[in-house]
Amino acid sequence: MSSTATESRQNGSIGTHDQHKTQASSPQEAKPETPTNKTPNDKQHNFKKKLVRAQPDTNALKYKAWLGGHIASVVFGTVSFIFQIFWLPNVFYINSISYRLALLGSAVALTSTFSHKFGLHFLPPIATLLSHENFQYLILTIVWCFTFKSVFKILPYFLLSVLHLSKVKNIKGVLNHASTISSWIAYDELFLIVYLVLRTLFFRNASGYQLTLFLIFYWLRVLYNKETGNLFSAIVDRLDGEMIKIKNPTVQRRWEKVREFVKVKQEQENQDN
Questions:
Q1: 102 contacts 76 by C-beta, under 8 angstroms
Q2: Which residues of the chain have pLDDT under 50?
Q3: CB neighbours of 258 closer than 8 A, spacing ≥ 6?
Q4: Which one, of 213, 215, 223, 180, lies nearest residue 194 by Cα?
Q5: Phi and psi angles of residue 90, each rounded to the nearest 5 degrees, phi first
Q6: What is the 3-state secondary structure (H, E, C) of the chain?
Q7: Cα(55)–Cα(90) distance, integer angstroms
Q8: Nearest-10 Cα torsion for 143, 149, 153, 155
Q9: Where are the domains of the chain?
C-alpha cells in the first residue's frame, strides 16, 4: 500500500484532494476574468423611438426673407414712382400703401442681412452698428415710413434692391453699370439733403429733425464709406474756388477745416490702397 503511494508520487499522479483542488482552479486558468462595466443587477432597457420633426433651415428662411424683401422693394417702389413722377391722384391710397410697402420690404431685407451676419441675439455694440451703412439705411426706413413721401427718400432702396437682384439673377446689363448706379445713389443723397434744407426753412412736417438725423448718418458715410467720401472730396474741390471769394473770416476758417479734413482723409485712403 505504501509502495503504491510512493509509486504514485514518483509517476506524477495526484491524490483525491489535489484532484478536486485542480478541478476547482482549472476554469479560472482556462478563462481569465475580463473587466466589465455591468453590475450583476444590470437589465436590458427597451428605449422607445420617437419621430421628431426636423428643424427648418434658418439660413434658407433668411435668404427667402432677404429675396422677398428686395422683390417687394422693386415692385412697390415702381408703383410709387409712377404715381409720384406723373403726379397721379392717390386713388384708394395706392401710392401711400405702395410707398410704405417698398420701405417695409427693404427693412425686411436689411434685417435678414444683419441676422445672417451677426445673429439677432449677438449684435455688436451700437457704436459699431452705426458705422455700418446697412444699419443706417434700416433706421432711415423706419423714419421715412412715418414722414412725408419723397422720390429722393425711396430711390436709394430701390436701386440697391435692383443691384442685389441683378447679382442673384446674373443680369449683365445692370451689373456692368453697377458703379454708375452707385453714383446715382450718392447724388440722390445730396439732393435729399438740399430738399430737406428747403423744407426746414419753410417749417414743413418736422423736416429739421429728419435733416439732422440724415446729416449725422451722411457724415458717418463720409468717414467710413469710400464712395461717399470720394464724392464729398470732389464736391469740396469744386466749391473751393467759390468759397475763396467769400471774405467772411468765420466762413473762411470753417471752410479751411473742411479742406484740411478732406486732405487728411485722402491721404489715409492712399495709404490703405
A1: yes
A2: 1-30, 37, 39, 42, 54
A3: 236
A4: 215
A5: -80, 70
A6: CHHHHHHHHHCCCCCHHHHHHHHHHHHHHHCCCCCCCCCCCCCCCCCCCCCCCCCCCHHHHHHHHHHHHHHHHHHHHHHHHHHHHCCCCCHHHHHHHHHHHHHHHHHHHHHHHHHHHCCCCCCCCHHHHHCCHHHHHHHHHHHHHCCCCCHHHHHHHHHHHHHHHHHHHCCHHHHCCHHHHHHHHHHHHHHHHHHHHHHHHCCCCCHHHHHHHHHHHHHHHHHHCHHHHHHHHHHHHHHHHHHHCCCCHHHHHHHHHHHHHHHHHHHHHHHHC
A7: 44
A8: 140
A9: 58-222, 225-273
Q: Output the nine-digit C-alpha cell for 101.
A: 410697402
Query: What pLDDT, on the 0 to 100 scale, is given for residue 269?
Result: 66
Cα dist. 122→7, 43, 61 in Å? 92, 46, 18
Q: Which of 102, 108, 66, 68 is nearest to 82 (CA)?
A: 102
CA distance 200 to 105: 28
Q: What is the per-residue pLDDT across 60-73, written as a single tens digit (0 to 9) for each?
A: 899 999 999 999 99
Angle, helices 207-224 vs 178-201, to 10°: value is: 150
Cell, residue 149: 413721401
How many other CB atoms are there within 10 angstroms of residue 106's CB atom? 28
Amino acid code (one letter) for 175: L
Q: What is the pLDDT of residue 12?
A: 43
The 10s digit of each residue's pLDDT in 203-234 is: 887 899 999 999 999 988 888 877 788 888 88
Between CA 100 and CA 110, with CA 104 as vertex, the angle to 5 degrees is: 145
The answer to whether residues 76 and 101 touch, using CB atoms and an 8 Å cutoff, is yes
Total number of residues shown for the chain: 273
